[in-house]
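Deliverable D4.2, example record:
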Amino acid sequence: MSEHHEIVIVGGGTAGLSIAARLRAAEDPPAVAIVEPSDKHYYQPIWTLVGGGVFPREISERDEADLIPTGATWIRDAVESFDPEHDTLTTRDGRTLTYDYLVVAAGIQLDWDRIGGLREALGKDGVCSNYSYESVDSTWQTIRGFRGGTALFTFPSTPIKCAGAPQKIMYLAEHAFRRQGVRDKTRVVYGCAAPAIFGVPKYRAALEKIVDARQIETMFSHDLVEIRADAREAVFEHEGRSVVVKYDMLHVTPPQSAPDFIERSPLANAAGWVEVDKHTTQHTRYANVFSAGDCSSMPTSKTGAAIRKQAPVLAQNLLAHRAGRPLPASYDGYASCPLVTGYGTVMLAEFGYDGKIMETFPFDQARERYSMWALKAYGLPTMYWNGMLRGRM
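Output generated by the structure prediction step:
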């Protein structure tokens, strides 16, 4: 089977749907096809609060069919390979799609199997993770049932979606332990492959004060490589040697990477991401290819907030290229991370390329505030479902 579409968007997640909605709302809307195998769509930023027992996981789920923009074609299939020299891709079901323009917005891949023993241990005997719909309930079950000991939280050596998320659930758990009366017999440990708690100095300094005040132990430059579930041992790699930490609770953030079908394609750079100009979102070698979101090479945090700024840039530039005009829009690297620091408190980090502070509000956003908690828990989900995915913000 072979079929042609003017624009093919690979991925029906946050980036794909936001871009498709904007393209279809254009004055001269192009024909758009979205290649997406899943029949469900998830608002993943809320999983931190699901893991902390604030919301049920069902609040994060919608039917994909209800989110496809009017007039767009949904192809329920997955991409197998790209041939950008011939403006062609093939799908898992054996279809051949040709296009005038291609948008790659396929998200990021969770590499659970890169940590030995993780898949077998997940969801049992204190091992949990917020990083999937299937596993997120295990986090709150583990926190709620915790009676003391070592609570270990990890951050891998790879790029990940929402780099603040691994510590957000740690702060919620530490707060929950205080509420449950077990904090005085609990050791909270952050095993982080990065060299510091956060990359942007302003927010790093504030978070370091929180970690110190709450007596959270940090193990920087420690990368989790194996779980020995029978012995409840986490094995880290640190400066070429193994470090073993006994745990009673272990929240794991899995290593992540560009999806395999992208990494092995001509579209990828040496690290596996779709190689685009970091300002225009246009591919550096194939002028009719654009990319946004977690699978792109843009050197910014992989967050929904980043996509909110990338999507209008990509849509404007693609439509300009389609009309034979210069590309008018530029992405400045904006990303946002609502750093949940406890029940009812959030520190809103906002920054662009090279760590430039790009804050929205006229107050010090490196302070914990309830107003930012309300934004995280209630404002942003509403904006996401009713605005961003509809191409309105």
